[in-house]
Amino acid sequence: MARLVVIVMSWLLLAPSAGRAQACAEPHYRWSEKVDTALQARPAVPVDIAAILTAWAPLSLTSRDMCAPRRGREDSVFVLVGWVRRLKLHESDGDWHVELTEARASPVDSCIIVEIPAERYGVIYRQARAALASLVDTTQLGPSGDLRPPARVQITGAAFFDGFHQRAAPSGPPAASQHGRCNSSLRALWELHPVYGVTAPG
């Protein structure tokens, strides 16, 4: 009888964990949120990069939150103007990775990232990629994707906090890490991801 009780208790302890694992089958971190087209029809709120880096509070999400749904500011669409400083076209997850700064001559590490998913996730992403390629000569990128001279673009997309890059520090508060060059603070983990539109600034 005691053995049966132990077996049942073990199953009860393990079952919730197994259930969570089965419910989370993302190929990459928060992937369903990154390729979601459901928000594209929402009106875009203007914002600038400086405001994101100084006023947008980071979320508590970390690399453990593989399947976290969108929440808070992530349910909104924003439009911003920035300068493309780096463009990576061959990321492992298929995204186009774009690093933007507020001004043409801003330090390259005072950036935020916007990402355009692969075309197979929606025609809107094919259109966004084509629009960006029409404004940036993608054949003239440096070995690391650096763009010289920078190009000014207007980007529309959903806010996304990339908590995968929020790392615990040995001492002191958490910090941003390995997020391209955009690690100036935890606020720099805010992205526009996915990008729904790219245009020339008005």
- Write down the overall geometry: globular
Classify the fold: give the CATH topology.
OB fold (Dihydrolipoamide Acetyltransferase, E2P)
| CATH level 1 class label | Mainly Beta
- How many structural domains in the coordinates? 1
Number of helices: 4
CATH-assigned homologous superfamily: Nucleic acid-binding proteins
**Fraction of residues in β-strands:** 25-35%
Rg computed from alpha carbons, rounded to a whole number of angstroms = 20 Å
- Low-pLDDT stretches: 4-22
Q: What oligomeric state do these chains adopt?
A: single chain
> Given the helix and strand composition, which structural class is it?
alpha+beta
Mean pLDDT: 89
Walkthrough of the structure:
The chain has 202 residues and is of the alpha+beta class. The chain has one domain (26-199): OB fold (Dihydrolipoamide Acetyltransferase, E2P). The chain contains 4 helices and 8 strands; from the N terminus they run ααβαβββαββββ. It has helices at 2-23, 31-34, 49-55, 123-135; strands at residues 44-46, 77-88, 96-101, 111-116, 146-161, 166-167, 175-176, 190-199. The strands form 2 sheets. It has a 5-stranded mixed β-barrel with strand order 2-3-4-8-5. The chain is globular, with a radius of gyration of 20 Å. The model is unreliable at 4-22 (pLDDT under 50).
